[in-house]
Amino acid sequence: MIATRKLYYENNKLSEFEARVLSVEKVDKIYHLIVDQTAFYPEGGGQSADKGTLASIPVLDVQKHDDVIVHHLTEKPAEETVTGIVDWQFRFHAMQQHSGQHIISAVFWHAFQARTFSVHLGQYYTTVEFEVPGLTDMDISMCEERINEIVCSNIPITTVFPQADELSHFSLRKPCTHSQNIRLVQIGDFDCVACGGVHCSSTGEVGLIKAVASEKIRGNIRIQWKIGRDAYQDYDLKNKIIAGLRTELNTNDSDILVKLGQINQELVTAQREQHRLEQRLAHVLAESLYSDREPAPDLPFDWIMVCFNQEDDQLIREIAKDLVNRPGPLAVCLTNRSKNRYSWLIGCSETVDLPFSQLHKDLFARTQAKGGGRPPIWQGIGHNPSLAEEFGHVLKSILVTYFTPK
């Protein structure tokens, strides 16, 4: 097969072209189309395959096989000459990400001799992992400033196809692993590296580059970046969030974090007070339930059973914890009915050997419930809220049967 003419290398801004169909092969309901020339960049080097249409048919994927470019289509073109239209917004985004990544990698190499270990050119962000054990926030900020200086300098981004014996004439950021079909991407005199991707024509086309997160991974540092359009969209979103917070908190931008810290502290204090009051209320309710308990003649312990209606589950847990710590022997069954389900709690005092593990299968089958735990408290949920009260009655009947002498 004749090598495909790669129009994307000849003109990185070409988005519409004519081509002659050389072959079409159907593979698992997908048509593999080869044309004599294409502006569709195939997936490779971390850069995604271009999107668009050929003969008005959506291009699903573009792959390179040796020196031939294969386009994956859902239909077979009817004509021998087709028009290709590249999704320019998608392509330009990919170009911004790839050129931006080269600038980022070059700056960190010059600043810290930090080699780029891996790269992810994503739809919403780009990550670059550096072979360096640690970087401070100040280090990253310093590099970010230098990165955007390179962008604003609008340095030409060019390509060259040298022979293997000519590589020594170039100052490569990392060694070239190929000996044939070598393509170098140069950012002025600042950076030079082997790369097969499609890039911007100058650093100015990349636009704003902003570091948004960093993390340690495999002993390296991985930094997440917003590049070009993504960076502007990220800034727009965060500016709207800040404006909203400014209004809601009635404060200046510089005081938002202070205000949020104060609100968070007030919330922690309020939660502690709520928990304290909840424990006091639970104690009062548990005292009332304990005082009104009645001996169960068919059981070897006293029995408390209550069905609550849309009560706070945490309050019911506190009631159960209070009750099981009172003088026994005592067993407790508390359920709480809500709109779409019910929760349940079973507890017992230390002197009661409640055979939950032997009885729960029968109990759950009859009450559409599930859950578990260990002494002195078991808990779970039921799927049918109408069975919330029935749960306690079923449990008691099962216990009576269990403790009745055979």
Set down the secondary structure blueprint.
Layout: E1 5-6, H1 7-10, E2 16-27, E3 30-35, E4 37-38, E5 52-54, E6 57-65, E7 68-73, E8 81-86, H2 88-112, E9 115-121, E10 126-131, H3 137-152, E11 157-160, E12 184-187, E13 191-194, E14 209-217, E15 220-227, H4 229-249, H5 256-291, E16 294-295, E17 302-309, H6 313-324, E18 330-337, E19 342-348, H7 356-367, E20 369-374, E21 377-382, H8 388-403
Parallel strand pairs: 1-4, 17-18
Antiparallel strand pairs: 2-3, 2-8, 3-7, 5-6, 5-8, 6-7, 9-10, 10-15, 11-12, 12-13, 14-15, 16-17, 18-19, 19-21, 20-21
Describe the fold and architecture.
The protein is of the alpha+beta class and 406 residues long. It contains 8 helices and 21 strands. α2 (88-112) crosses α3 (137-152), α5 (256-291) crosses α6 and α7 runs antiparallel to α8 (388-403). The longest helix is centred in the last third of the chain and has 36 residues, at 256-291. The N and C termini lie far apart (88 Å). The mean pLDDT is 95.
Quick recap:
By secondary structure, the protein is α+β, with helices and mostly antiparallel strands.
Give me some keywords for this one.
single chain, 406 residues, 6-stranded antiparallel β-barrel, 6-stranded mixed sheet, 8 helices, 35% helix
Average pLDDT number: 95
Q: Tell me which oligomeric state these chains represent.
A: single chain
Tell me roughly what share of residues is in helical segments. Answer: 25-40%
| Global geometry | elongated
The fraction of residues assigned to DSSP E strands is: 25-35%
